[in-house]
Amino acid sequence: MPSFATHIVGGEVFYTWLGEGATAGTGKYKVTLRLFRACNQACGAGSGIACLPDSALVNVFAAKAPFAQVVTLRMRMTGNQPLTLETYPACIAYKPVICYEMRTYTTEADLAYTAGGYIIAYQNCCRAQSVNINNVGGSSNGYPGSTFDCFLPGTDTLALPQHNSSAAFRVKDTVLICSRAPFSLDFGATDADGDSLSYVFTGAFDGGEFTASFDERPAGPPEYRIVSYKSELGFSGGGPMGEKVAIDPRTGLISGESPTPGRYVLSVVATEWRGGIAIAAHRKDFMVRVEDCNPPEAILEPEYLNCQDSTLVFTNQSASPLINSYYWSFGTVGGNTSVEPQPVFTFPDTGQFTVRLIINRNQQCTDTTTTLVKIYPGFTPAIGIKGICVLHPYDFADASEIAFGNAVAWTWRLGDDSAADDSSLLPRVTYQYPHAGDKQISLKVTSSMGCTGTATHVLHVREKPTVDLPFRDTTICSTDTIQLRVNNRNVLYQWQPQYNINNTVIASPAVWPRVTQAWYTINIDEDRCVSTDSVLVNVITRYPVSLPADTVVCAGDDFPLHAVSDAQRFEWSPATAVNNATLQSPLGRIQQSLTLRVTANPGRCPSQAVIAVKAVPYPVVSLLADTVVCYGHTGWLQGATNGAFFNWWPVNTLLYANTLRPLAGPATSTWYRFTATDTIGCPNPTIDSVFVRVVPRVIAFAGNDTTVVANQPLQLTATGATYYAWAPSTGLSNSLVYNPVVKLPAGTDSVVYTLTATTPEGCFATDQLVVRVFNTPPDLLVPTAFTPDNNGLNDYFHPIAAGISNLDFFRIYSRWGQLLYETTDIKARGWDGMHKGQPQAPGTYVFVVQATDYKGNKIQRKGTVVLIR
Asked: What is the superkingdom listed in this entry's lineage (predicted)?
């Protein structure tokens, strides 16, 4: 990729007549070039973007073909001016930085007065952001370039002694153009000679060839090619921002509604008129930015249509953060309104309603829009299909339900992949498929109210109808009658042969063949699609039946039975020994041994078989009741059985697990399963369980050791169980509650209280609490030094509270007044010599502590503490 590219955003060339030249027949002209680039974009080596040059080359050509080159002018830079947008509109959420660098280049030259005049031109290879220009495509080398020119008239146009200075476009502050919003942009010019000016959009000129070193090259001769406008998007040289943007031919003011965000190349020609004659022209070429300013807007779809029900969800399509409020009116007789950002509204009737949205109502940056809502519920597209098989056409019809209006347009897709066109625009279609298979049918329906929907259906196209026979092979007794059956409906039936059959044209005729095998054929005709199938009726004189060998079962258990036979009916006895005495394979259940008999086809052609079933009882098991043990203790289990074998499970928490009386010591509540088996015929075990509930470990807590002053009431609080006992009872208000109050008289040194906490099951634990008594008034005792070396001794610095009910604050400061530690928790461990994770240096630190004693008095202490490491 080229190393320097995409930097020019606009420019112009103009001239000023300064007087007669140094040689007779010449005039002295000041030629000026202006170039523009985005000033907030890096340029130079390594950026891939060229800076504006420090000097420029401008070519002067004869204005008539073959446009001979007259002179190349090297122009020095005489100005470098930033153009920055300072003032933004109030009602935009996005305020981009818009800044351009404008460099001015000038030189003076003597040019001979000729009849045809001159064309003065500057060329550059590359426009800025060439790949992102919305209205212009790339050139042959991939970069649309720039050419800026102006016309200096000759004596054929402006006879001597008349002279001309070209118009110059005014340099204005830059402007912010917001997408899809009205805007105006001043492209007006001034003329030093007082000539009148007219303005028109014109095609921008492409530029010169790209060079990797970006050497300045003078412009080539006219005529110059126009950049490639994206006409497919509606852009052209005469309409560079689309049909909604125009230029005032008298003032040069560009205005209208801006297009979508992006970059747009504009080229405007200012023509000078003197005495009603156009004498000269020059162009300004500039690439403007259109931004999505995200203003607060009320934007809705032009129309909403609901053909299913009467409820719609409305959403403003603008997500600007400057939208503070919403006001919706739904156009109903009742004047329904809403202030929700996304209201859900059910219209009370069908028809058309005008919905209005006002954002920021009665505020700055308000906006209003309306939309038309059409409510025509009861629109359900549906397909009606008649047809059976590939032999005959299918009939497709619109079966849609339309409550309002009527269907006016149809589009069918009939799912025939083999056809070049299987579509239709008629309400009813007849179509014959060449091949069987599944066809995806769709119908798009449009109503006169504008409702549109699509119905789909998977059609199973068959070669022929399927004959639905519940059986195709059966057996009957030689003296029986059997009813044949075909489950197809709405078809024509034809049974053959007409042998011992009561009706050949019904779905379920009765037959009574008297031969060994009789075939009956059924033909069905479903809408002229015909299919055939057959049923074989075997005729026998009796139905053999057999049962498995005699067996042993557990008394009361279900066990399977199965009679091996082709018979149609069965009868078991005794009937109470099976769950259904008429099944071929019932379930048996007996409490005592017996013989079961089955009769196959009872009544006609019967046969019988028997089976002896021995019932063996389960082993008898009994266990002691569920029990409770304390955590860490054990309990005895007790089992009994008449079985030959038994076992307990789980055994990992049992002692003597191979006996009927094991010792259980589980850590948590556990079910113990007792299983007994026997050797007398019933292989299944008898299982019972006993539950051992373990009372969780009792953790008695009497509280932390504490200090009080003489006669200070101290509230004790115990936890851990349900019942509590304190000993000794010295100074206690009640020794059998969890929260007694203790008050110790002067002269008492300390008392050690032992707490016993007991559960309702009798499980208990103990804890001790030491209450030390200060025979002084309430006070805060503060150590003078501490050693935070993590050896467990004197690692924390904290006050010792005597008679204190609340710690107001405890603060540690450095010698320079920096707060290092602070707490209001009287139970806190204290300062560990750290600050923000860093150990503090050995030395002296300042503390301030304040507390409230049990009488409500404030106690404050200040001083220093030495940190020793």
From this structure: Bacteria
